[in-house]
Amino acid sequence: MLRQDPLPRIADLSGEVPGSTLKSRSEVPLGDTWDLTPIFGDDASWEAELLTLAACYEGISSFKGTLGKGPHELAKALEFEKSLDASTERLAQYAGLRISEDSSNSKALDRDGRLSSLCAKISEACSWVAPEIQEIPDEIFDSFLADPLLAEWLISLQRLRRLKPHILSTKEERLLSLSMPAIGGHHETFSQLTNVDMTFGSLTDDRGKVVELTQSSFSSLLQRPDREVRKDAFHKFYDEFTAHRYTLASSLASSVKGDVFLAKARNYPSALESSLFPDNVPVAVYDSLIEAVRSRLPVLHRYYGLRQRVFNLPDLHVYDTYAPLVSAVQKDVPFDEAIGMVLKSLHPLGSEYTETLGRGLSQERWCDRYENKGKRSGAFSYGTYQGPPYILMNYKADVFSDIYTLAHEAGHSMHTWYARRTQSFQDYHYPIFLAEVASTFNEILLTEHLLAETKDPAMRAYLLNRQIDDLRGTLFRQTMFAEFEKLTHATEESGAALTLESFRKMYRGLLDSYFGTGVIIDDELELECLRIPHFYSAFYVYKYATGISAAITLATQVLATGDTERYFGFLKSGGSKFPIETLDEAGVDMRSPQPVNAALDLFDRRVTELEELLSTPGQAN
Q1: Catalytic residue among 101, 173, 371, 409
Q2: Number of domains, the chain
Q3: Which CATH number do you get for residue 118?
Q4: What is the pLDDT of residues 417-440, one digit of tens each?
Q5: Is 124 a catalytic residue?
Q6: In which domain, by residue range, is 167 found?
């Protein structure tokens, strides 16, 4: 039952660009980097643990044939496997974070490669465990569960037993374990191509400064007030993807084919159902999300019309949809000031939450703050049971949304902090469905705090615009991505070919629907589907949309009543229950349309409020 954890929440690798003005990793001040010594004091300690793990993992075979003999034998095997899992998790966190610092670091790449190879061997060695547990007759298995020896394993054993129709024979499980590195090879191809080999050049921004165009700086440039800068950045960026479009399309097609193969191999009706089954999420939740969001697209189109009027543009391109509508609030916010803003906004959660997070971001150096050569772009939180819940940022003081990114990743990290203090190792790891609730909850509190603090109409307009764009990106955009994933996998399952042209056609249809007739879709944007890293972890992105919907309901409860008990119950639950059940106990029924409709209603209200505010003379750009 070695856990196959999802990838940490990441964007692409930035890669090193020739002539780069970015600092190398060795030039970054220590205080701006994360402190990984709580995991391993140095690389040598990591190497020692890797050797220990390599020397002991085959011991799992000594339990083979004993799991059905009694609760004592089963408990011993599970505890041994847990020790392997705990060691692997620690090794993977350190190796992953080191490679995230600088993807061109050959030693880090070597560590990661050797660990990946060992993990494949461990997975193969443990591949018989689940089938043997599934072979225990029902009446005997039920008697085992009633034994106090297995009390701490009750939840994980029940979940494993639920997978019985999809667990294969020992030989078949071994073959699947051996094949996983090959099946997942397209992910590494995508990363190396987009993050190491591809370069995007540079451009002169609205301040007359030559700016290196990277996957990290791209988002910053799209938020600049000068349209020519946005346009130049957009076309330069996609020129590079155009040059590699066939390779990228082949890589994405391989990813979809791998998903479909694994679903068929494990006897699921479809790849979508295979993905939803472990969380016990009904397909109806996925489908109703798409249906609800599509029904409210006219409000989104209305918002784009507002943008065109405020910017006074003859036409609106997609690269015009990210710049803030109120340029007066463009200012630099240093990282330490951003920490203070986030902590103040989280005051409703109490002192334990805010003081713990404050120490983590400052004295304990959970966060790696700024971009450097070769560092992963975007942001993620990577927490484990034994190590701190680290945060990777590529913080830019001139990108106001980076404050929201910090609040978002802090939500993930504090979710891990509470879950691991409350749950056993085997039950602490919450699913992504729940993770996106905690992160977006923090963003909502940040918005409400900032709106309450400001009396400046221009600042208020900016904050409203920020929340609208957050909802647009998290609710509408991620649902569009979810629909694309459903279409691509259904295409493969139908026997039709997945080619560059079929990807472009499917994605263009979605772009036309979600942006509407009032926005010009540049042809290059059809290639956006080839650069989204989440598509290599299929059926993940819908959880952003359901997450923000649940978070809005929870935040409304906390702010309206001041009662945080149910919310902390949610944080502490970890993975001890299925996500729908966990949210239900916190007061959010995801089986009903209410949470998604509440989020869509909030979007509608904010657009209306912004329209009214910007219709007042002096408030527009």
Answers
A1: 409
A2: 2
A3: 1.20.140.70
A4: 999 999 999 999 999 889 889 998
A5: no
A6: 34-183
